[in-house]
Design a protein that fits this description.
The chain has 400 residues and is mainly beta. The chain has one domain: TolB, C-terminal domain (Neuraminidase, 6 Propeller), CATH 2.120.10.30. Helix content is 6%, strand content 36%. It contains four helices and 24 strands. The strands form six sheets. Strands 1-24-23-22 form a four-stranded antiparallel β-sheet, with no helix packed on it. Strands 2-3-4-5 form a four-stranded antiparallel β-sheet, with no helix packed on it. The longest helix has 13 residues. The two termini are 34 Å apart. The protein binds calcium ion.
Length: 400
């Protein structure tokens, strides 16, 4: 798509928030104009680094004027207002999910360890996940999901690279000890790169997983392959009822997806790494084909579903994705920023970037349960960041 210099200079976001019904019309023009735009401006607010970038990869398919015109004033209005370090001394923290007491379980990709971290920042090492191997790239110990029934079953779910495959396994964690290891889905092809790896329980109670194409792009279009897909399964690793092909496969045509989240309407959003042109934010529907490798970003090939948003890879390269208070947040690695994308009734509003360059590469972002806040992890100790082991952090972002 064309990327001509943008004529609109975005002023402070509060100006946008104060738009009246009358000026909402011009806001619509704003977002329409950004369809051909690029970075508009960068500004800093007191206490918080806040780089606002308008017009990254706006796609002309949805009416995102709704981002500033929805009634009630409750939709998508909070923004990052403060950031602080919760915990230091991490090495590529990757999977993160919450226990009922508000503490988090966190995996480290290359140490294969599982930790528990309280909201107050107390870290306890729980143990090492067995059978994990590094891929000297993007594999290792990846996603983590806590059973929705954890108080009863003490189950946690992990996705990792093993000697011969990538796999999804179940373990027990009773609050103290890591126990029984049960493979649920094996035989997902692995490679140094493109291993996907996010795990998430959906509002329907089923477990979703993202798998990469393992550097074999054609697998993404092969409905019988587990690679380059979003998978949906029962807690036993069986195809969830209603899956489009009667298998684990939920959607196809993905390259290296690592972000999954559901919005307030229960819609599934996904973030994935593009190759060298465009990263994507997709609205996922069962049985749809998201294009890779025929398309990277938006295209007009029949049968392919276009992304809702796309970014140049140096602006994003998104891993984690989470929904909070009317927006999705993408943790960008190469882009070294946190993207906030308003979610509207019909699509997305204009993305804004926060903390650009301030914390290096970002990996995982998760909404803190019961709080208007996010936890955000860095991934500077990976091969892309080149920082020593122990140099990563867990950060807390307050929304206001
Ligand atoms: Ca795509």
């Amino acid at each position: 798509m064309a990327r001509a210099p943008h004529p609109f200079r975005q002023t402070r976001r509060r100006t946008l928030l104060a738009l009246t019904a009358t000026t909402a019309l011009s806001a619509g023009l704003l977002t329409a104009t950004t369809a051909t735009g690029n970075a508009a401006t960068t500004h800093r607010t007191a206490g918080t680094s806040h780089a606002a970038t308008a017009g990254s990869g706006r796609l002309p398919s949805t009416a995102d004027a709704g981002a500033v015109t929805l009634p009630g004033g409750h939709h998508g209005r909070s923004v990052p207002s403060a950031i602080r370090t919760v915990s230091e001394g991490w090495s590529i923290p990757w999977g993160l999910d919450w226990l009922p007491d508000g503490s988090a379980l966190i995996t480290e990709r290359e140490t294969f360890k599982l930790f528990r971290l309280t909201q107050a920042g107390k870290r306890v090492e729980i143990g090492t996940v067995p059978n994990v191997v590094t891929t000297n790239g993007e594999g290792g110990l990846l996603g983590l999901a806590v059973s929705p029934n954890w108080k009863r079953d003490h189950h946690i779910f992990l996705m990792h690279s093993a000697e011969g495959d990538n796999r999804i396994v179940r373990m027990t964690y009773d609050g103290t000890t890591l126990g029984e290891y049960t493979p649920l889905v094996t035989g997902i092809k692995k490679y140094n790169y493109h291993n996907g790896g996010r795990l998430r329980f959906g509002p329907d109670g089923y477990l979703y997983a993202t798998t990469g194409d393992a550097f074999q792009a054609a697998l993404a279009q092969d409905k019988t392959s587990l690679n380059g897909k979003i998978l949906r399964m029962t807690a036993e690793g069986k195809p969830a009822p209603g899956n489009p092909y009667g298998s684990l496969v939920y959607s196809i045509g993905h390259r290296n997806p690592q972000g999954l989240t559901w919005d307030a309407q229960g819609r599934l959003w996904e973030a994935e790494f593009g190759n060298n042109a465009f990263d994507e934010l997709n609205l996922i529907k069962p049985g749809k084909n998201y294009g890779w490798p025929t398309c990277e970003g938006q295209c007009s090939t029949p049968g392919m579903t276009n992304p809702e948003r796309q970014w140049k890879t140096n602006e994003a390269s998104p891993s984690g994705l989470t929904y909070a208070d009317g927006a999705v947040y993408l943790a960008a690695q190469r882009g070294q920023r946190l993207w906030r994308v308003p979610i509207t009734r019909t699509g997305t509003g204009t993305p804004e970037a926060y903390y650009t360059g301030d914390y290096g590469r970002l990996r995982t972002v998760e909404k803190v349960p019961g709080a208007k806040a996010l936890w955000l992890t860095t991934t500077n100790a990976d091969f892309g960041g080149g920082q020593p082991a122990g140099s990563d952090k867990v950060l807390r972002v307050d929304l206001r």
